[in-house]
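Task card 7
Instruction: Convert sequence to C-alpha cells.
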Amino acid sequence: VHAHKIRSLVIIQNDTIKYEYDGKKFNEHDLHSSYSIAKSFTSALIGIAIEEGFIKSVQEPVIKYIPELAKVPYDDKLTIEDLLNQTSGIKYRLATDATIYYGRNELKALRQIKFETMPGTKQHYLNINIELMGLVLKRATGISPSKYLEDKIWKPIGMCSNGVWSTDRKNGLEKTFCCIGATALDYAKFGKLYLNKGVWNGKHIISDSWYHQSIRRDTSNGSSFNYNYCWYIGLKEYGDFMAIGLYKQHIYINPKKSLIIVLFN
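Output:
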C-alpha cells in the first residue's frame, strides 16, 4: 500500500459538505492546478458552443477551423467528435507533448501532426487532441477559452475564486488539455453542475442533450466502454462518472447518491 499526500479532499452529499480536508501547506482558498481534469471543462465548452450555434455539430470536420492540417493524410476525415473521444488517429510524439506543455508557441505542434490510423477507428489518449479542440473552440467562437469559460460557466455558477488557465507565451493560447487553476470547491461546483444535469438555479448552463451525450456509453467509431467526451464512465449499476487528472486528481459524481468527491494529491 502506498500513501499519498493529499492537497485537498472534499465530500459533498445532498448539497452538504460532509467532509473537507486541506493538507498542512494548503487552505480552502489555494488554487490547485489541474492536469487532465481540464479536458472535461473544455468538453463542456464545446457543448455550449454547439448550443449557441458557433459550431454546427460534433461531426463537423476539424479542418474547417484548423486549415493548417490541410494536405496531411486523413485531414478531411478528422471530426470534432474524434477529438472529444480520443479517436483522432493522430500518432503520439513525445516532442508534440513537449511543445504544447513547455513550448512558447502552441501552433508549432500543428506542423508535427501525422496520423497513425484512420480517425474514428481506434482510441488513443493524447493531449494534442484536446489542444486542437481548444483551438477549434477559440476560432469558432472568436473568444478565448478562458473568457468563454468565465462567461458561460465560472460566473453563472458563482465560482469561489477567479481561477487561472495557463497559456503559451507567443499566442496566449490556453493549454486546454490541462492547466486550469481553481480551488477544491470550484471543482466541486463544476461537479455539482454535472450532478444537476447541466442546470444551475433553474437555468441550463449545459444543455440536457449535451449532458446525456457526454456521459453515455458508446463503443462505436473506435470509442471505448468507459470513456466518452472527456469523461470516465463508471459502473452501470451506479451511473457514476469522473473527470480525472494525473497524480490522482478526481472529480467523482454519483447522481444516484447525490454525491460529489473532489480529490487533489
